[in-house]
Design goal:
This protein is α+β, with helices and mostly antiparallel strands. It is about 20% helix and about 20% strand. The longest helix is centred in the first third of the chain and has 31 residues.
């Protein structure tokens, strides 16, 4: 008796069914998603471990671990944990990292500095410390697989009171503003600047530059130049910005260039 084989239509149906099963399996398994979720689980375990170690040290010693007892950490500012000094970036903030190497804490309460699953060296662990609005210390992960999620764990310990640091981009203590530098932007500082709102060098007052400066100098008088108050008709002066020809001067508002002293 002859055995009847599959028809072309039947083969197409079978192949199509297998393809559907394969696509469904990939969607269910999704190795990239599985790996990302596994990494986030590891991150939670790590930051909870760090937070618990800080709590245990504080309970036993009645003070924060020396490396974490910082008064220059502002609310929302993130210092990446590291074992070597350096500038590291977390959540768009580039700051000096917080070196953790106190032998009374590391190796006793915390076996070692844990690393984010995507990091290779404890010079950049990928985990940060920050201050909450109530001065509590929190540990978090700079990276997450789910970009809408925050991986952060509070430790039952408080940071010392904030000591303001003008130029750290964070308004704290008695500061009224902080634009990320300790330089006073203004007309008369020999630097051509764009219009905007800035902070002075002590973060105690706001400086507003109304229009883009077209020139600037460091002499305060009716006739300014970039070096000293002098007779500029000798042709030796070379200006800055848009005032580049000899005998060209900037007015006291830094918005107009003129020839000769007025």
């Amino acid at each position: 008796m002859l055995k009847k084989g599959f028809t072309i239509v039947e083969l197409i149906v079978v192949v199509g069914f297998i393809a559907i099963l394969f696509v469904g399996a990939v969607l269910v398994i999704n190795p990239t998603r599985r790996m990302g979720e596994t990494n986030d689980t590891r991150r939670w375990e790590d930051i909870i471990g760090i937070a618990k170690a800080i709590e245990l040290y504080t309970i036993e010693n009645h003070v924060l671990p020396t490396d974490f007892a910082t008064s220059t950490l502002s609310i929302g500012e993130k210092f990446v944990l590291c074992d070597t000094p350096g500038v590291l970036t977390c959540d768009g903030q580039s700051k000096s990292c917080l070196v953790v190497n106190d032998v009374d804490f590391l190796g006793v309460f915390l076996p070692e500095l844990p690393l984010d699953p995507l990091k290779l060296s404890s010079a950049d662990t990928g985990y940060y410390v920050t201050r909450t609005a109530t001065d509590a210390i929190a540990i978090g992960s700079c990276s997450t697989y789910d970009s809408t999620a925050t991986i952060e764990q509070l430790a039952r310990a408080s940071l010392p009171a904030i000591v303001s640091e003008c130029g750290d981009s964070f308004v704290d203590s008695d500061e009224v503003c902080d634009d990320g530098d300790a330089f006073t932007e203004q007309c008369g500082n020999a630097t051509i600047e764009t219009a905007g709102t800035y902070c002075n060098s002590t973060c105690s007052s706001v400086v507003v530059i109304s229009v883009n400066e077209v020139c600037d100098s460091n002499v305060n008088g009716p006739c300014w130049d970039n070096f000293s108050h002098q007779d500029l008709y000798n042709g030796s002066y070379v200006g800055v910005g848009d005032c580049r020809s000899p005998k060209t001067h900037c007015n006291s508002a830094c918005d107009y260039c003129s020839i000769g002293c007025v």
